[in-house]
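Holo model, pyridoxal-5'-phosphate. Inputs:
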Amino acid sequence: MSSYREDFPIFKGSDVIYFDNAATSQRPRQVIEAMRSFNDSCNANPLRGLYDWSVRTTDAYEAARHAVAHFIGAERDCEIVFTRNTTESINLVAYSWGLANLHAGDEIVLTVSEHHSNILPWQMCARRTGARLVYMECEKDGTLPASEYESKITDRTKLVAVAEVSNVLGAVNPIREIADVAHRKGAVVLVDGAQSTPHMPVDVKALGADFYALSGHKMLGPMGIGALYGRIALLEEMQPFLTGGEMIETVTRESATFAPVPEKFEAGTVNAMGAVGLSAAIDYLNGVGFDTIMRKERDLTGLLLDRMRKMPEVTVYGSEDPAKHCGIVTFNIEGCHPHDVASVLDSEHICIRAGHHCAQPLMKYLGVSSTARASLYFYNTEEEVERFADALTKVRGWLGYGA
Ligand code: PLP
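Output:
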């Protein structure tokens, strides 16, 4: 039994096996308590108030910004813009940087395994600027060969947008190597960190990221809060994505001047309580430690892969090596639609994901329309893996295909 598990109220007295952590992780009581304490002690509109509660809300919000900056190795707090999630962070870059800096003939380089959140904003930019999308192909297990980024990133490349970890295969992309090639060609590098920040230490400087996007709800924090890291020189050049209150210096009837970064990108009342929750989530992750998180995930994934290898009807996608999954195990059961697999497992109180996982180009590349996905986190247990594997052996029988 994982001792961390006791920190998560949702598991108390529940027999539910939650294996959909790549979609949204659960929240420990430390996060819930931090948000409650904020709510009960100082909740007020931040940034503009001159009274104590508002000042304390502002302080809590800025402390959270500092926590995120420190967590991902940003040099300055003002390089962190709070957003709703990874999707909004990437859209901010697409609208504010992409539309201003991409031109006909330029190339945007992605991988075939990107989440739709890191494809559609670039399709929009390509449509509106005349830039072209170029895809780097991965191996079937998700590995991105050096020949792909060495050949596809060229003098025409203006942006390389790539996930650090695939949400389908769990494979980790060689961001530093990709960024080195991109920077030699004068391109800007955006890293989608939605699936890496929950599982591994991140240092945006060491990675060579110019932009880095993350979501709070995937790393023990609340929904509705995410962040964008941007290199200060880039953020300062960019026009705001959204306009309105809180992001201005002066406004006349005809025009406005904008506040410095990061306020320039945080129009309207911000999600201060979400930021407080994210900051508490970061404290919690640091307390557990990424060595422990990675070891637990590797052990649980190893156990699951061992069990699944003994099931001839099950196809597992991704690496043979459990350390190269970030807890994500994507699979299909012969003859069974993944939606049916997920539904029948739900009746056993087991939560997994089924579908295209917002990665349709990767599905096409793998030659499937959809898959099932179990995604484990450090608070899951061996008992859960065993119960899940036992259930998997029965799925075909439950669905009427014989055992
Ligand atoms: N990028 C990746 C790799 C993801 O896995 C996800 C969500 O699953 C996203 C982006 C989008 O995250 P959000 O829905 O929090 O914006």
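The longest strand covers residues 157-163. Residues 30-286 form a domain with the Aspartate Aminotransferase; domain 2 fold (CATH 3.40.640.10).
Archived with the compound record.
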